Amino acid sequence: MKKQKIKLMCLAGVFTALVYVFTAYLHIPSHTGYTHVGDGFIYLAACLLPLPYAAFVGAVGALLADCLTGFAIWAPGSVIIKAVAVLFFVRKSEKIITLRNALALLPASAVCIGGYYLYEAIITGNFVAPIAGIPGYITQSVLSSILFVVLGLALDKIKAKDHILGGK
Question: What CATH number corresponds to the domain at position 101?
Fold first, then answer.
């Protein structure tokens, strides 16, 4: 049991680092921040890790990226939005890419798009100007979803879920 917990903590650490790197360093700057594919790794973590670990990955990976790249004002929103986004995925199947996890991309994307719009509206006190950021949020969700599906299919092909979590 203790060995499994350590394995999950290590895997959560690796995913948190991936989220941070793919958010903070591999992004496209926009007028309010940046567009990135780090969410794809959050979705993968949600399919591999128990909920508390997956929520940690999303929240802390995004928090680090925001705080260490000069966008700390976004950190409170990112922590909540990314932790909520993992709720739609399921890890109990043999594969990462299942119909349920593919469909989970829709509400997870809606949470990210709507969440960042609402957060920007709250911090600016303006509910009209943040509409300009929605195309960037949509692009981020689409690109992250593509990354999730491509990596998920590749990992499923080599049965990575068995090897990573099954101890084989």
Answer: 1.10.1760.20
